[in-house]
Glutamate racemase (Sedimentibacter saalensis), 256 residues
Amino acid sequence: MKIGVFDSGIGGITVLHDAVKMLPNEDYIYYADTMNVPYGTKPKEEVKKYIFYAIDFIVSQGVKAIVVACNTATSVAIEELRNRYSIPIIGMEPAVKPAVEKNKNADKRILVTATELTLKQDKLQNLIAKLDNEHIVDLLSLQELVRFAEKFDFSEETVLPYLKERLSNFDLSNYGTVVLGCTHFTFFKDMIQKLLPEDVDIIDGNMGTVNNLRRILEEMNLLNEGNGSIDFYNSGVRVEDQEKLRQYKDLLKQLD
């Protein structure tokens, strides 16, 4: 049985990459909801409809677990998804906890970046309220990075001016950690790093999510020896176009 990996678009490929590295013998279905991306600018209830349609489809393929490799989808629907399906549903959230633990005694602030919708949700607000006793967490939307990624535009000429503008209101010397709270943002990690002081760390929730996937599969005796295959789907339609498949596979290679 395969593992489903779901995202609004190509961002979840960053999580798929880490899953394949950790569990190379598993078979995967990657579902990108390319017809409806981005989620972060849309109303919550509209996004929920897209999520349920996507997860229904992935479950129909006979998967043994699903990784919701999308912070926005996790923030708006993860509890309802877990109540709806009997298979493990692994979500992800911005890596606020490790960031707070790291910065606790460093007298530094934390900048959590995410999509507009994620930043509005109670799930993130409650997480920060629970962990941020020192009130050192600031929030920033980098929504436009989703659009750049979906256009496969990773050029510095396009992206760096946008990042500089978005970061211009922050004294970056006050920060110890930047949290990438959207899987699309990981594609731009190196560019973000260029704009930060050398001692600022950038972290995301990808490896924590994949570690959680492995732990759950081990506990349920669901690990298996597959072929390491990956089937790509765009909004429920299997990707057969060789150029599109090449783009997806090239993204996986670029993350090595």
